[in-house]
Amino acid sequence: MNISDIIEEFILEQFDNSNDVSLSRNELANYFNCAPSQINYVLSTRFTTPKGFLIESRRGGGGYIRLSRVDLNKNDYINNLLCHVLNADLDYPTSLQILKNLSELNIINSQTAQALGYALSPKALAMPVKIENKQRANILKNVLINIIKG
After folding, report:
1. CB atoms near residue 136 (< 10 Å)
2. Helix, coil or strand: residue 20
3. β partners of residue 68
4. What is the pLDDT of residues 90-129, one digit of tens each?
5. φ, ψ for residue 100, nearest 5 deg
6. Is 27 found in the same domain as 9?
7. What is the distance between the alpha carbons of residues 90 and 102, in angstroms, rounded to a whole number?
8. 101 with 59, same domain?
9. What's the pTM value of the predicted model, to 2 decimals?
């Protein structure tokens, strides 16, 4: 297990009894004997909106990080995702995480998530990465819009 996995696991454990957690970036870095940039990396890659988290951060002396689990109803969550993917480039791992969250929230079933994952794969899209990421975002955007329409 690498340091990023350990930090992620530690932060997730802080959510045991709450949907909000306040942490000090420097205290975490000292605790794990790593650079504060390592904490930033974990936060920016593993605690993102598509993964169901919101981050509020204040830097400087006494700065903190407040993490919140997204506790939205299904339509709010989908609208939040739409804002995230609208006019964005969407890489394949992020799209898989979005599909996993949609499945875990019972917005789509696991078979649909798996099929969409194959349809959004680099092999299926087979185009230059920049165009591929844009196309993946457009496809997912249309799927989300159709889910909202019911």
Report:
1. 25
2. strand
3. 20, 54
4. 899 989 988 988 888 788 999 999 999 999 999 999 999 8
5. -60, -45
6. yes
7. 16
8. no
9. 0.61
